[in-house]
Amino acid sequence: YYIHFKENISKMSMFPYVMHCDCQSIAYAVEGTPVAQAYCHCADCRDFYGATVLAATAWQPQSLTVTQGHKALKQHTHTHKKLTRFFCMNCGEVLFGTNRLGLFVVPNKQLFRSGDPDLESLKPNYHLFYRQRIVSIKDHLPKYLDGKNGETWSE
Description:
Layout: E1 4-5, E2 17-20, E3 27-30, E4 36-40, H1 43-49, E5 54-59, E6 64-68, E7 73-77, E8 84-88, E9 94-98, E10 104-107, H2 108-112, E11 127-128
Parallel strand pairs: 1-6, 4-11
Antiparallel strand pairs: 2-3, 3-6, 4-5, 5-10, 7-8, 8-9, 9-10
């Protein structure tokens, strides 16, 4: 995967969402509009990110830039799934990953660290792979049983 590296940027305001790992060794940013904003219930995301359900945004590769600490950024690619996660070698925090479509997946917990007051626009607006859920969620969002635009769950 190709990751943009731009260290020592003097005007960080050009990136609306700037995030850091726990130890502040790595900074990265996303700009533009995400391709998807979803809750993912698939077994792959649960296993790979260690979450019951993953709230995340998906971005085109050119939308993500590492702005600090590229030498501390390490990656792990799953042996047979088309998933990669990127993490800090110092604190171990997972910062973002890639999905089978080649998009960068940024967990929402990272976006909340950006300090942007207008994160409401990045809230998930549907559920994916709801058939694989281990926790039912009561909300008014569409719940696609598999991928987007497929059959939906009806209560």
